[in-house]
Amino acid sequence: MRRLWGWLVRLAAMFRRQRDELEFAAEVESNLEFHVEDNLRRGLAPAEARRQALIALGGVEQTKEYQREQRSLPMLETLLQDAGFAFRMLRKNPMFTAVVVLTLALGIGVNTAIFSVMNAVLLRPLPYRDPDRLVTVWQTVISHNSELDGLSPANFLDWRNDSSAFESLAAMNYWSFDYTGKGEPESFRGELVSSGFFQLLGVAPARGRDFLAEEFEPGRDHVVLLSHGLWQRRFGSDPAIVGQTISLRDQPYLVVGVLPADFHLPWIGADREVFAPLSFNAQTRQLRTATYLMALGRLKPDVTLDQARAMLSGNALRLAKQYPTEDGSVGAAIRPLAAQITGRIRPLLLLISGAAGLVLLIGCANVANLLLVRGSQRARELAIRASLGAARSRVVWQLLTESFILCAAGCAGGLLLARWSLKFILGIQHSEIPRIAETSMDSRVLLFGVILALLTGVVFGLVPALRISRTNLQAAMRRRIGGGAHGSRQGLKGFFVVSQVALALTLLVGAGLLLRSLVNLLNVDPGYSGDHVVALQVYAWARYTTNEQRIVLFQDAVRRVSAVPGVQAAGAASSLPLLQGGPDESFHFSIAGRPLRPDQQPTAIQTVVTPGYFAALGVPLIRGRLFSEFDTADSPPVVVINQTMAQRYWPDEDPVGKRIGVQIFTSYNSKLNPPASCEIVGIVGDTRQWGPEIRPGAEFFQPHAQVPFGGMAFVVRASGDPFRRVNEIKQAIRAVDPKMTFYEVRTLADLRDGFLANRRLSLGLLAGFAALALALAAIGIYGVISYSTAQRTQEIGIRMALGAQRSSVLAAILAAGMRMIFAGIAAGCLISLFLSRLVAGLLFGVGAADPLTFAGVSALLFLVAVAASYLPARRATRVDPLVALRYE
Amino acid sequence: MGDKFDVWQGTLALMILRTLEVMGPLHGYGVARRIEQTSGNRLLINYGTLYPALLKLEQQGYITSEWGASENNRRAKFYRLTRAGRKQVQKETRDWEKANDILARFLAPEQKT
């Protein structure tokens, strides 16, 4: 306590040095006088009395120095002195200071912003209890490359009962809830969840209660939990909503609770607004082939992921033996929930943060170079300091102090920059990146920024400081400021320039490859023309229970939509390109006249369409005919297939007129019908169903009149911006059914943009980083060349006075720069060849070692580098030889 | 040097405090003189260590200082013990006695039992 107080007093003493100094001098003086008086009293002569007193006192200055050391904190004082000096030096060189601080701020800001996204998306634990134990559980189709599939109700129930790997296992099923109440009818995104779902996650409703066990029985399951967002949006945050009954799907549902505001399910895409119990009736309990459930499990504490996989595979094997026809080819897969959420985005984020790191490295090299250059200019000053007795460590400290001041300014600027760019990042909607909305500058991000700044300070400050302080005193003193170059130091600068060029080239290569990929993707013919097309998804299962009702509904609605002014074509389809999930050709069919081998049953995508669909989407007919209004429930069943299907299954014959057997079920609850024999009446062009990157799969279309699905998307082609027609289109459909709700209303162009959003984002960021890197490298080259020419001004003057041609002098200077640039480009190409493999997964239609990209960015970098070294070189040769000779 | 000692590390502070306790307010020269006298002139006070020691005690709050007039009306800086300083003297005195006692046992001539 006393000691602490002592420190504080000493700290305070730093601010009244002058007064203390005077006071102490007075004290010493008065004590000296006492001593002199004593000596006089002892009979000494006045001069002798004073002499002896002075001897006894010892070295006054030494005493004062001891006193100073005790009075305040000399270490801190030195530091402050250094800092004050550094401030003055930096203020005297505003250009230098500005460039350095800006470079650092950019580097640190970019990295901090990217890290804050990484922090939210990858690092922060999921907001559930023990999120490490959570896994998603899948069926796999062993005959199809073991691709992931959902679970069927019967398999889910068996796995839940039998598997000892899980503490609990829950299933969920996407469900839309048509809401009719106050305001416009609306379709809420919902999820049916099996019992124990919320306990499994460790989430409790913020208001009201969780579902009760008996509410998972059919007939008692008309209860819902609302999301916090929906509660605010549609029910005005009314606390009394709990306990009230609302009308969903034309049925009364009791609201039992509201979920917490931070409750999200980031692995299933858009947020769900309504949750209801998933109940199984006697019929659904038997379903083994309808794989529509998503499953989520919590591993037992002592079970590892691999053990759980083995245990679950055992279960799948038992079921395969027990139900060979349904489960013969069913395997099991488990993925950690965190990986499920971030799996696709992880490599992208790592790539971007790696690129940001490169920018910072280039910035560091730049700043180190500038410091070296400045250090050379200050060689004399430092030499004077050293010869006056400054220890090398003292000089290094002083230089480091300057670096850290620069660094602190850069850090502050960087954090500000990060804040701004975060606002920008959050401003653009990226629903494609899960959890990005949670991004914020929390303490971890701030810590990251500060540590980064400190590291940066050491990296860019220490090497130059050590280098500069190791000055040959005599040489430096003898040399005039700026005279004569130092070989080794020049080499270090050259190294920095070479590495800057190399790193910049690496970033340029990455950006170039991504740019070419995006261009390739935009040029891919999707097989349809999505401009001017809007899609409106509806779910009409609940209120349209018979086939006839659904057929009439969609016929009437499409007819009315077609009559809306500006609408050129309209139809409806059970799924649209870009709206279907991942690659999934899992619909089984048989080909008439070919023996069926169970392990090689042909599969394709099944899509149900109304006749107008092909025209509305602009899908071309290749052979045969499309559907017409004469293909009805009573006419012979027909299908239209796509080119891929025709080529895959009928490579050498004309499929038109051939027959396939297709199992038709129109609702999950309906009985399985025997396969219907359908005639292939036409072949249409392929469409890229899963986005431009993925080759189209085999697909067959069936007329809605023969397979009356309830969940369909209207596809409307209209002149101009189709989104402007949405209200009229909705009105036209509501003229048929006033209670109709729309789930997803998007233009196809919008959907495509969503598909490419991540690519655009990563390309944009990488291109931005590459541009920064290029600019930094150019500044670096410019700085080093102009410094070296400035040092050689005298030499250049002599050469020119002796008759050297301006062009030959220019060439000599440029040649020196060229060497560094070529070395940098060569090194950069090697690094890029190695690193571009990392982005291979993000490339489309272009190799990771694409020669065109490498050559192009090398040329670009070369041009910029030459320009950056030409400017100072030209300036040097323009100098009047006389002036140059007199140049100090 | 011969018969004169430098002050042992750490004991100067106690000597100063004790001197001020006995003598009341004193200036730096007086403190030095008094310590030298008390030691029978066997200690030689170095001003280069005295002043920092006074300053340190003042920073720790054991003594305070103020400018005043001496007997012969000369301006001088007088140091005075504070209440904390008085306590510190007692504490350190006890500590020294203990330490002395212990050391004395070690240094006492070996007794055969």
Brief summary of the model shown:
The complex is a heterodimer of chains A (888) and B (113). Chain A has 888 residues and is α+β, with helices and mostly antiparallel strands.
> How many strand units of chain B?
3
- Oligomeric state: heterodimer
- pLDDT average of chain A, as an integer? 83
Stretches with pLDDT under 50, minimum 5 residues of chain A: 480-488
Low-confidence stretches of chain B: none
Overall body shape of chain B? elongated
Q: How many separate structural domains of chain B?
A: 1
Order of helical and strand elements of chain B: HEHHEEH
What is the CATH level 1 assignment of chain B?
Mainly Alpha
> Gyration radius of chain B, to the nearest Å?
16 Å
Q: Give the tally of structural domains of chain A.
A: 4
Overview of the structural elements:
- The complex is a heterodimer of chains A (888) and B (113).
- Chain A has 888 residues and is α+β, with helices and mostly antiparallel strands.
- In chain A, 52% of the residues lie in helices and 15% in strands.
- In chain A, α13 (346-377) runs antiparallel to α18 and α25 (806-835) packs antiparallel against α26.
- Chain A has 27 helices and 22 strands.
- In chain A, strands 1, 2, 3, 4, 5, 6, 7, 8, 9, 10 and 11 form an 11-stranded mixed β-sheet that branches. In chain A, strands 14-15-20-17-19-18 form a 6-stranded mixed barrel. A 4-stranded antiparallel β-sheet of chain A has the order 13-21-12-22.
- Chain A folds into 4 domains: 2-72, no CATH class; 131-342, no CATH class; 346-523 and 754-886, no CATH class; 541-739, no CATH class.
- Chain B is an alpha+beta fold and 113 residues long.
- Chain B has a single domain (12-107), classed as Orthogonal Bundle (Arc Repressor Mutant, subunit A), CATH 1.10.10.10.
- Helix content of chain B is 55%, strand content 14%.
- In chain B, a hairpin with a 5-residue loop joins β2 and β3.
- Chain B is elongated.
- The N and C termini of chain B lie far apart (42 Å).
- Chain A binds chain B through residues 2-3, 5-6, 9-10, 23-24, 26-28, 30-35, 37-38, 56-59, 62-63, 66-67, 69-71, and chain B through 27-30, 33, 46-49, 51-52, 55-56, 59-61, 70, 72, 74-77, 84.
